[in-house]
């Protein structure tokens, strides 16, 4: 990925993170009520959907465990994208897009799969799409 696309990826990812922060949490599922804490799985999957629609391609969802705590993020080839790492005391970055996986390498990968809404059952997919559309409304109202 060239520098311009990397910058665009960071800007779109940051816009998505701000949109989640600015949403009325009562309009989002319970997993977002203490965002970013406990939101990494759902947030990563719908971020992947958003970025794919913006032309950035497909992503993998990675779930890791460190000191008994689970954490999820996105990966595309060597690029790591994480919008919920600041739920941990040792990381204050709201948006991480990096080729340096030092912090993420502290997690033992438990699962990795395509970050695609279509792999989920209809109930989960519906919940994620409703959440995505709520966040998207917030993005569109701030542009």
How would you describe what is shown here?
- With 143 residues, this protein is an alpha+beta fold.
- Strands 4-3-2-1-5 form a five-stranded antiparallel beta sheet, covered by helices on one side.
- Helix content is 38%, strand content 20%.
- It has one domain.
| Radius of gyration using CA atoms only | 14 Å
Instruction: Report the uncertain regions.
Output: none
Mean pLDDT: 94
How many helices? The count is 3
Please state the overall shape, judged from the principal axes of the Cα atoms.
globular
Keyword list:
3 helices, alpha+beta, 5-stranded antiparallel β-sheet, 143 residues
Q: How is the topology of this model organized?
A:
Layout: H1 3-22, H2 40-53, E1 60-66, E2 69-76, E3 79-82, E4 96-98, E5 108-114, H3 122-141
Antiparallel strand pairs: 1-2, 1-5, 2-3, 3-4
Helix pairs in contact: 1-3, 2-3
């Amino acid at each position: 990925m060239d520098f311009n696309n990397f910058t665009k990826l960071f800007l779109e990812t940051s816009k998505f993170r701000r949109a989640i922060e600015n949403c009325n949490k009562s309009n989002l599922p319970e997993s977002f009520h203490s965002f970013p804490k406990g939101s990494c799985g759902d947030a990563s999957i719908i971020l992947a959907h958003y970025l794919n629609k913006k032309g950035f391609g497909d992503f993998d969802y990675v779930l890791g465990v460190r000191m008994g705590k689970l954490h999820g993020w996105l990966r595309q080839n060597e690029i790591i994208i994480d919008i919920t790492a600041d739920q941990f005391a040792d990381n204050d970055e709201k948006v991480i897009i990096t080729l340096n996986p030092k912090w993420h390498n502290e997690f033992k990968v438990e699962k990795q799969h395509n970050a695609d809404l279509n792999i989920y059952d209809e109930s989960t997919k519906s919940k994620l799409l409703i959440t995505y559309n709520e966040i998207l409304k917030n993005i569109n109202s701030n542009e």
